[in-house]
Specification:
The protein has 313 residues and is an alpha/beta fold. It has helices spanning 78-83, 118-131, 149-156, 166-178, 192-204, 247-253, 288-293; strands spanning 5-17, 20-27, 41-45, 50-54, 65-70, 90-97, 108-114, 135-140, 160-163, 184-189, 212-215, 228-232, 237-241, 272-273, 279-280, 296-297, 303-304, 308-311. Helix 2 (118-131) links the parallel strand 7 and strand 8. The chain is globular.
Length: 313
Amino acid sequence: MTGTRIELVVAAVEEAARAVRTVRLRAAEGGPLPSFVPGSHLVIDCGGRANAYSLVGESIAPDEYAISVLRVEDGAGGSAWVHGLEPGDRVAAHLPRSMFPPIAAATRHLLVAGGIGITPVVSHLRAARLWGRDVQVLYAFREGHGAHVDDVKELAGDRCEFFGDRAGFAERLRTVLTEQPLGTHVYVCGPGAMIDSVTEAATEAGWPASRIHSERFGIDALDPGDPFQVVLTETGTTLDVPAGTSLLDAIEGAGVAVPNLCRQGVCGECRIPVSAGTPLHRDLFLSDEEKQACDAIMPCVSRADGPSLEVPL
Ligand code: FES
């Protein structure tokens, strides 16, 4: 292990559901791996690009890091690369990063998952069992596509419900949102449309934003954003960044190189300083404190919160 980098070796690969594989990774040098906060990501180098995957295994001094990956046929190739892994293959990764942690002060944790969005929920459930936390799970998936169903049943017991149809899920969700004790936090992970509908239903039911937590899958879930301008102070250029064009694309288009790897806001490679203006952070890399400092941005996914930004490039 060097810095935040870690060398892993594939210990096992299992079919978890249709098009979903669970890959179990151990430390290449042997021994336990660093603990992580439940709901964390592992960012792995997928043959030239970096992708983030939620960890689904035990989080305290684990023997392995397990990820369950849905093969996305029209994706950028990261999931296909993971699906090609075999026992014995080496994998370079960054140490796990906490992105979707359970709130320690919550009286109950209402966990809502759609499809492969179950992965961080499994991690939350393992921690909930360990610490005796009160949980309730609603898990929607298409028939044959449900990963970790047995894990959820084992970890949540009679506190889980499964749904194969949207209408039934939406109706039950509305009821469940009105039945929670004060101090419950809701966590939702799944496709962007599902996250939006759960957030909307919770807001309509009177839940404050501070008790609604969501995790989106990388850049696919991001909206095109509003247009803004970026001033490159070193080169003395002002660029337009239209909606749907990333800040990174705009800077590269002006002939200024910025190192990058994932272009999804997960690897940290494209980080650049900000000298004026407020960033609209949409990455999964910077910590909350770093985001609040407003002095750096991941231009592959993040934009300006306002008409313009200045960067010393
Ligand atoms: S290129 Fe990976 S975070 Fe931007």
